[in-house]
Amino acid sequence: MDSTLAYLINHWHSLLESVGIIGGLLFTGITVRRDLEARRVSEQLTLATQHRRLWGQLHRRKSLSRMLEADRDLEACPVSREEELFLSLSFVHFHTGWLICRDEGSLTPLSVLAADAGHFFRLPVPRAVWQKVRATHQPEFVTFIEDSVRLVPVASEDPNTQL
Fold first, then answer.
1. Helices 110-122, 81-101: crossing angle, 10 deg rounding
2. What are the boundaries of each domain within the chain?
3. Which residues of the chain have pLDDT under 70?
4. How far apart are CA 44 and CA 25, in angstroms?
5. Which residue, 124, 96, 119, 118, is CA-closest to 108?
6. Phi and psi at residue 39, in whole multiples of 5°?
7. CA distances from 74 to 9, 69, 152, 161 (A)
């Protein structure tokens, strides 16, 4: 006991430095974790803002509303340049969402994005444009989109499915 007390008296500054270093590391770890959580929330809010702006165009620009028709005949009514441009932006938006949602701890589960993508990419116009541009996207993202489409039931298979 005397030797321990003597050691502490002689080396109290080393002990204090060690406690300070350990405390600093713990504080840093807690701060990094909180910053990561804040960044995730910020990414989700940014994505929601972009989502609102992008899809709000469908309400403001009536020429885009035909893009969501499930029974559209592309032979009789081909895809317009305006629709292609909008879909290019929406594909980038889906890609951004995919990048955010696949991170561990995301506020939105990847399954929610997959269901949304499956319904959207099953529509004739998005499907046609996607087939033209899919080679320009990351292979993992292409796989995600195509798996999402396969997992969503066809409207004729499930009368409760809404597009």
1. 160
2. 45-151
3. 1, 154-163
4. 29
5. 96
6. -65, -40
7. 86, 11, 22, 23
Residue type, 35: D
Give the tens place of pLDDT for each residue, 82-104.
Answer: 999 999 999 999 999 999 888 77
Residue 121 and residue 125: Cα distance in Å, rounded? 8
Backbone angles phi, psi at 102, to 5 degrees: -80, -10
Structure tokens at 31: 């701060």
Global confidence as pTM: 0.70
Pull the structure tokens for residue 52: 């609102």
Find the helix or strand (DSSP H, E) in which 140 lies.
helix 139-151
- Looking up tokens 């993508």 gives 117
- Residues 6 or more apart whose CB falls under 8 angstroms from that of 147 comprise 114
| Residues 133, 81 contacting (CB under 8 angstroms) | no
Please report the pLDDT score of residue 162 as a whole number: 41
Beta carbons within 8 Å of 23's beta carbon, 6+ residues apart: none
Nearest to 115 by CA among 156, 143, 150, 86: 150
